[in-house]
Each structure stands twice: as structure tokens, then as C-alpha cells.
Amino acid sequence: MKIALIGATGLVGEVMRKVLEERDLPCDDFYPVASERSIGKLVDFKGKSYKVCSIDYALSSKPDIAIFSAGSKISLQWAEKFAAEGCFVIDNSSAWRGNPDIPLVVPEINADTITPQSKIISNPNCSTIQMVMVLAPLHKRYRIKRIVVSTYQSVTGTGVQAVQQLDNERKGISSTMAYPHPIDLNCLPHGGDFDENGYTSEEMKLVKETRKILNEPAIRITATVVRIPVKGGHSEAVNIEFEKPVELDEAKTIIENQEGVVVEDDPASNIYPMPINCEGKDEVFVGRIRKDESVESGLNLWIVADNLRKGAATNAVQIAQYLVEKGYVKQ
């Protein structure tokens, strides 16, 4: 079994290596790929040290699985070349998510969209993953009409430079800015690039990706993305309006029974999900579950998850595990 990790030294790439080890995905040969300045450096994986190699070298080695976490530009340039060699590509960028021929997969929700011919598979946006993990089983029962979501996103979603900006601001040190404004003691209603419609690219990902994963192009969705000065994970306030009447206790049971979701919902005891408690965990946490009293059939939810794990690395590795378990990748 040969596995290549493109973007092995980045913030997500480091977590990818950790999750690959934890989940013990079969791996006989490992090819960590990074930028030219990192080639030759050593990275640790499963108790061994591996030299960072070029993407050309990884391609020539014909890996069985290549996990891409190096941005859309690299994915668009190289993913099809790996796929042409028979490699399964799991791409963590936005490059292929909108392509109708390429599965956009959260394994607990729609792994069945993967076939042996799915040589490129898209990992959804981190905010989308944690939201659909909770909404998918509710949609099956009650049918979603409309979603209003506001996110409170960790600086880790932007990358190392953003984390450094936050740390340096807290120390009073001037440094390179990942954001157009200070992030410490602040929140920025700005995730991604602004589109002509006034929404950001991160907001439109929530709209388009949720529709694709749930296979419901008519669901009405509106989103506001906010970046806040935390590191532990992304949080979301999600309001859902359903077609069918919602029973609160039944809805809680449905959420509790969803694989990979943990309910933390005891406001009287100050128990609800928070990023500080979710960091380093693979589950999606849900609390503040309550009926929306302004509509006939609605719910409000507070959803939190570590965006580097289930929102990126863990979901990608779960896809790789599915490929192995189904026999699509021969060991």
C-alpha cells in the first residue's frame, strides 16, 4: 500500500499524518510532499522518518491513494495526473467540490456516492462537514425547507500565518497579517473572498456543498461566516425550518443516534459544546437544541467541531479507509 500526502508539512498536513497513524491505515510506502523549500526535510510517520519529496517523485511512485491538502491550484494542476495513474485522489481543497461528476463525501452521510471509478473524491469544507453531520438525519425525518447558519470560525482554518498573527497580537508583537484587521479581541465577518452578491466564498461553500451532499438542490440556505480569535475549532449557530412537524425529544434522539455526533445539551448545568473542549477530537458536538418559536416547525442548534480533524484530516482519512474496506484499493 502506497500513500502520498501532498501538503504534508502544513497545518492540516501535520494533523493528517497524526490521524493516519491513529487510524492505522495500511501503509507500506509513504510519500510526504511539500513545497520545494521543504524537499529533503524529515517528517515522522508511524515511527519512521521520511524525506519530503517532490510531487513529481510521488507521482512517478504510483501511489494507491494520494491525499491532497495543498490548495486548489495544486489540486487542479496535479489531481488528474495522479488519477490517470490509477491512484485514488482525496482532495481537501475546493477545486473539485462543485464538479457534478466528482463525489463530495462525508462518509457517515453519503459514502455510497463513491464507486470504483471515483478516482477523484472531494473532501467538503470544514464548516459544511460538521453541519451536515447533524442535519442529514434530521432531513431524512422532517425534510428541511430552509437553513440559516452563522459560523464562528477558528483561526486555524486560515492556516499557520493566522495562528501566528493571533499569538503575536496577544504578545504585542508586529508581524505579517493573515487578515485585513487585527483578530485578537475582535471578530471578522469575512471568510474567504467577497463575491459580487455580497457573500463570501466561504459562505457560498456552505450553501452549495450542503445542497450537493444532501442531494437537495432546492433547499434554501443562507450563511454568514465570522472569524473569531480561538484555536480549538469552528462553532455554528444553525436555524432550520422543516416541512414536517418537529418533536423536540424525537429530534434529540435522532441526533444522538447519528454516528460521529455527541450531544452536550444541559444548559441548566452550563453544559454545551465549546471549541476549547472539542480540540483534538473527531466527533461533532451539538447543544442548545431548542425549538424555534418563531416558525411552525423549526429548530435551533449549536454545533462545534475541531476543523482540523473531522473538518479536514479525519474526514479525508475516513474516505481512504472506506476505499480500503470496500476493496477499491487492493492491498
**Radius of gyration of CA atoms, rounded to a whole number:** 20 Å
* CATH topology annotation of the largest domain: Dihydrodipicolinate Reductase, domain 2
Largest sheet: 6 strands, mixed
Number of beta strands: 13
Order of helices and strands: EHEEEHEHEHEHEHHEEHEHEEH
- Could you tell me how far the N terminus lies from the C terminus, measured between alpha carbons in angstroms? 6 Å
Assembly form of the protein: single chain
**CATH architecture call of the largest domain:** 2-Layer Sandwich
- Fourth-tier CATH superfamily name of the largest domain: Dihydrodipicolinate Reductase, domain 2
Uncertain residue ranges:
none
Could you explain the architecture of this structure?
The protein is of the alpha/beta class. The protein has 2 domains: about 140 residues, Rossmann fold (3-Layer(aba) Sandwich); about 180 residues, 2-Layer Sandwich (Dihydrodipicolinate Reductase, domain 2), CATH 3.30.360.10. The strands form 3 sheets. A 6-stranded mixed β-sheet has the order 9-8-10-13-12-11. It has a 5-stranded parallel β-sheet with strand order 2-1-5-6-7, sandwiched between helices. β1, α1 and β2 form a beta-alpha-beta unit. α1 crosses α10, α5 packs parallel to α7 and α5 crosses α10. The chain starts with a strand and ends in a 6-residue tail after the last helix. The mean pLDDT is about 95.
